[in-house]
Amino acid sequence: MHKKILITTILAAFTLGGCANMSETQKGTAKGAAIGAGAGAVVGAIAGKGKGAAIGAAVGAGVGAVAGNVWTKRQEEQKRQMEEATAGTGVGVTQTADNRLKLDIPSDISFDVGRADIKSNFRTVLDTFAAGLVNNPRSNVTIIGHTDSTGSDAVNNPLSLDRAASVRNYITTKGVASSRVAIEGRGAREPLVPNDTAANKAKNRRVEIFVAEPAPATTPQ
Predict the structure, then answer these.
(1) In what order do the strands lie in the sheet with 181-185?
(2) Residue 214 has what DSSP assignment?
(3) How far, CA to CA in Å, does 12 sit from each of 16, 28, 73, 107?
(4) Phi, psi at 143, each rounded to 5°
(5) Is 78 found in the same domain as 33?
(6) Closest by CA position to 94, among listed 9, 173, 209
(7) pLDDT digit string (tens) for 17-64?
(8) How crowded is residue 37: how many other Cβ atoms within 10 Å of its Cβ?
(9) Which residue, 40, 70, 112, 135, could crosslink 28 as a Cys pair with Cβ 3.0–4.6 Å?
């Protein structure tokens, strides 16, 4: 069983290693397939049904290729635009391991303490962000609000959700369909740093925005 998992893992590694000459879309699909293969092998091995690992790997590869995200030229262009629009603001703009564009929005430019109203300087960032989404209608968005530990969950949980909703509502006024946007409020449950100083609490009061472009589904042959 362990040998089958090891072999599948090695094959997945080769798949990832062979991405050097692929397009960005092909890279994203290959990574999804490799990750899916590894997961499929584990599931098959746990089932303990002889060829379960190999079958699970094959199924997992197919699922990964279909369900994974891709990093396309549109995603790269939006990343570049957001880096330019947020230069010097403290906003983090990155590509995640699962091919999503991530924006980390600190509290000093997004919301006042205890409020969910978007600050004026945050609107200019969101204007650029929304324009990129309009130009990439295949992408979907997840907005997650966070608070520091000040106050109770009864206050922080709805406040974090309200902040995410404020961002969603703003970008929908700029032409982004609300059906493309999911929101979450996680209150104080996921701090970046301990809530032991005012500076650290400011870091934990934040909004995270993720943009994903799903890999195109393939038709079974």
Answers:
(1) 92-95, 100-106, 206-212, 140-146, 181-185
(2) B
(3) 6, 13, 24, 40
(4) -115, 125
(5) no
(6) 209
(7) 445 444 444 455 455 545 554 545 444 444 455 544 444 444 444 444
(8) 25
(9) 70
- The span from the CA of 121 to the CA of 86, in Å, is 10
Name residue, tokens 């970046």. Answer: 192
Residues 6+ apart with CB under 8 A from 169: none
8 A C-beta contact, residue 57 and residue 41: yes
Q: What is the arithmetic mean of pLDDT over 156-176?
A: 96
Q: Are residues 128 and 173 in the same domain?
A: yes
Q: Which helix (H) or strand (E) holds 218?
A: none
Tokens in use for 168? 């969603």
> Where residue 188 sits, what CATH number does that domain have?
3.30.1330.60
Residues 63 and 99 in one domain: no
Instruction: Give the residue carrying structure tokens 């790997």.
Output: 57
